[in-house]
Amino acid sequence: MSTPTKGTGTKWVGRAIRRLEDPALVSGQGRFTADLLAAHWVRFVRSSVPAGKIVKINAPEGAMVITAADLKGVKPITPMLHKFNYKPVGQPLLADGVVRFVGEPMAVVAAASAAQAEDLAEQVDATIEDVAPVIDARAALASSAPLVHAQAPGNVIVEGNIKTPGFDAAWAGAHKIVKLEVRSRRQNATPMEARAGHASYDGATGRVILTCATQMPHLTRTAIADVLGFPEADLRVIAPDVGGGFGQKMSLAPEYVVLVWLARKLKSSVAWTEDRRENLIAGYHSRDQYVTLEGAFDKNAKLIALEADVVANIGAYSCFPTTCGVEPLMAMAEMPGPYDVQHYECRARGVITNTCPMAPYRGVSRPVITFTLERLMDKAAAVLGIDPVEIRRRNLIEKFPYTSAAGLVFDDASYKQTLEMAVKAIDVPAFRARQKKARTQGRYLGIGFATFSERTGYGSPAFAARGAEIVPGWETVILSVDPSGFVEARIGSSPHGQGLRTTLAQIIADEIGVTPDVIKVVHGDTDRGPYGWGTFASRSLVISGGATLIAAQKVRAKLIKIASHMLEAAPEDIVLADGAAKVAGTDRSVTIASMARMAYTQTYRFKGEIEPGLTEQGTYDPPGTFSNACHVAIVEVDAETGRATIEKFLVAEDAGRIINPMIAEGQVHGGIAQGIGNALLEEIIYDSDGGILTANLADYMPPTAHEIPPIELLHRETPSVNSITKAKGLGEGGTIGAPAAIINAINDALTPFDVQIDEIPATPQRIRAALRTKEKAARKTA
Amino acid sequence: MSAKSDITLTINGRAHAIHVEPRRTLADAIREDCGQTGTHIGCEHGICGACTVIVDGEPVRSCLMFAVQAAGKKIRTVEGLANGDTLHPMQQAFMDHHGLQCGFCTPGFLMLAVGVLECEPDISDDGLLDVLSSNLCRCTGYQNIIKAVRAAAKAMRKK
Questions:
Q1: pTM of the entire structure?
Q2: Closest CA to A239 of A221, A260, A217, A259
């Protein structure tokens, strides 16, 4: 590993330099929202029932308690999608006469300290007339199910349908049809910092500063100004250090809007720090899906048609800005995965229930559909009597650009090559020998593969295709060299752990010939940065990185122009390196600091040929690019306890050009750890009455260091033509592929028992339940 | 609620005279009453370990201890790890091995690892894995945290 040192002249892109973010974070100097003190602290009073009519809310005497009745003129949050039969439903900031999930905010209490606010909130007495809730998505589809919102008949809020021409004929001509039903249980992204907001009113300007743990500061500003009905200019949103998000902090928290409303009302500062229980019951959930998938294969095990039915439980409201269409529609668009299949039929529905709303979570549907599709491939391999690796070889796409049956265009990637790299590295024959021997000792080892694509860095056309009212996609970067020679990039993106300050600095350093450590990347402040969308969907390095490169190329061009003028040399003879411009082959040079000073204070020397100042802007809106990987898990399943232990995890991945290998590997590690949690441990459980049983981190279990095996990484770089830095995104791949590889491995391990595990998480209870069924059947036969 | 007490918390060698309710947790007192916000609160259930500090030489969850219980004890937090401008080997190792991403759990992991290694400098790799399993990190997948702590353990033994 190298450190930022001055004057090497070598390329910075591609090097594993230490992160510029780290010195503050390891010293306790990080600045998180909850570090701010406020005059007023708030506590939300939340519904304890999943469905009901609010009869009365009694406040303790003298307490400041705000309910929906106080929020006159405030609009509900109403995300919008203009396609897929989407039914817009509004979410009031505080429940307005009706509660629709356990944890829904009904009132907010403000007091002089957080402890006092909690004490008072406990004394708020809400009388709620219970009505029958509907919790499960399939139950919500029943004709007799209670309606959660009158606007959404049948509780279906969004429905996508696709059927390629010729599907029926292809289906009829199949050699074998393989069918699979899977269940993905509900999960919570669980960033280590729960949500937090702090709104502060400035009496001099009438503005509010909202500091909050968000992935999208600009859109938070736009949304809040819209809901509360005041000019965006009067709101400044700051995302300081944010302790992880994984999608959960992308969706607008109604609580933040309430804070801004309160700060304006009280003309003061108010703060809210979500506690872990609130986060687990009301901080957005994900991945609660039923998927039925059928594959039609020909005699050569080639997949000729795919039919899918997706039912996604989207909870009680639709999240802003993506809408709740994000899970079912992503599933529909990407179900065929990296396989060449010409015929495809899919119905994907988002179903409303009396549960916590769904929001995007790392991978968005793709962990579920990859798990489904990869289970189908393994099951088909068994039915057709070929090896799981071989069936993938025969079906992976290999000619690019490839247009999928769902209409997505895949750019250059290495699906087959990464599969072969992984197969070779894991040594399948040696594993099979070991597996065979272990079985004779009553030990059950299994191997599982997952090959998949990861759509990353997609711009506005991709979001527009979904019919979204809010169409994100592009990013802008403003790159300045100030009169002292200090380089600052102000970006619209909003990283929260991804190391973007470092990787963008590496990109800039190579263009303008300075070291990354002298470059400051500023983000997460709507007063400082250009309008931008934020960090989500594995987009920031591709899109904000592309915008950075464009801005840096412009600054480079201008520096060369100034140098050419100052050094009286031809522009093509100027070399930018080591913080200076040099005339190649001579000892003549001028520092960037001198050029910058001149660009502001001595512009008369340019005789009108060069514009004053040294600030350039770049905007980038790419079509999107696909990363790819093959994951391999080796597990051991204890047949007595049902516990699955991952012995080894291997990844062969390709995310195009790697800007910083250390950061890239960190993203893969972290993604896989979340995938392991999703596969084996993490589950939000509602009881049949709609109460939530997993409201702390002992019941909802993210993995610890013990559950994460050593991860072996193999890399390949297929540069993307759809990304001007040649980089592809890789934030979600780990989470997308891991559950599939692990569940396939568990099923391989359990082959002698002839059971199928098609549900995540595959907890010891579920594995034991499956084995018990077989044991009972065996006893009966005996 | 009950009457507040006057206590003194000694954090990183500095005395903080504070006035707190008996129910005030050490974590809240460190952050809000003493202004040392490097210690983070992740769950308040004693599970995630983000709030780990060292009290009289031992790592403790500051969300599970009352401030009044820590009066008169020697408290160390992440702000006190470095020696002037020289980072503690554990801080340096976390940077060198990419043992952090968002940085929220990091102070807790640093204090846990330093506290344990000061008590047991020769702890085995398995023992270390057990210890590190007591805190949660959602970003790194732990591989690099384990690498960092092992590297720091070596560096601390050399000192």
A1: 0.97
A2: A217
Binned at pLDDT 50, 70 and 90, residue A93 comes out as: very high
The answer to whether B4 contacts chain A (CB < 8 Å) is no
B98 contacts on A by Cβ (under 8 Å): 19, 662-663, 665-666
Interface check for A3 against chain B (CB to CB < 8 A): the answer is: no
Asked if B37 lies within 8 A of A32 by C-beta distance, the reply is: yes
Best of A2, A26, A708 to substitute, by most chain B Cβ atoms within 10 angstroms, is A26
Residue in A with minimal Cα distance to B110: A26
Fold held by A289-460+623-781: Aldehyde Oxidoreductase; domain 4 (3.30.365)
Q: Using the predicted structure, report yes or no on whether residue A3 has a pLDDT greater than 90.
A: no
Chain B, window 110-149: residues with a beta carbon less than 8 angstroms from a chain A beta carbon:
110, 129-130, 132-146
Residue-wise pLDDT tens digits, A397-424: 999 999 999 999 999 999 999 999 999 9
* Fold that domain A33-131+195-273 belongs to in CATH: Aldehyde Oxidoreductase; domain 3 (3.90.1170)
Pick the CATH number of A22-30+474-620 from 2.30.40.10, 3.40.1350.10, 3.30.365.10, 3.40.309.10: 3.30.365.10
- H helix intervals, A91-235: 114-123, 137-141, 167-172, 217-228
Q: Which residue has the higher pLDDT, A3 or A380?
A: A380
Contacts of A243 in chain B (CB under 8 A): 40, 102-105
Show which of residues 539-568 on chain A sit within 8 Å of chain B, judged by CB atoms: none
Quick one: pLDDT band at residue A10, thresholds 50, 70, 90? low
* Mean pLDDT rounded to a whole number for chain A: 96
Which residues on B lie below 8 Å from A671 (Cβ)? 141
pLDDT of residue B1: 54
Helix %, strand %, coil % of chain B (to 5)? 40, 20, 45
Interchain proximity A673–B141, CB inside 8 Å: yes
Q: How many residue contacts between A and B have a Cβ separation below 8 Å?
A: 172
| pLDDT of res. A44 | 98
- Residue window 496-515, chain A: list those with CB within 8 Å of chain B: 496-499
Compute mean pLDDT per 10 residues along chain B, 159 residues long, and list them. Answer: 90 98 97 98 97 98 98 98 96 98 98 98 95 98 98 91
Q: Which residue type occupies A561? A: K
Domains parsed from chain B with CATH numbers: 5-79 (3.10.20.30), 89-158 (1.10.150.120)
Contact call for A241 and B23, based on CB within 8 A? no
Contact assignment for B102 to A23 by CB distance below 8 Å: no
Q: Is B25 on the interface with A (CB under 8 A)?
A: no
**CA–CA separation, A19 vs A25, rounded Å?**
10
Distance CA A69, CA A436 (A): 68
The ipTM is 0.98
Q: How far is B100 from chain A (nearest CA, A)?
A: 8
| pLDDT-derived band at A295, boundaries 50, 70, 90 | very high
Q: What is the pLDDT of residue A463?
A: 87
DSSP string, B27-87: HHIIIIIS--TTS--S-SSSSS-TTEEEETTEEEETTSSBHHHHTTSEEE-GGGSSBTTBP
- A192: nearest CB among B23, B50, B141: B50
| Per-residue pLDDT, A671 | 98
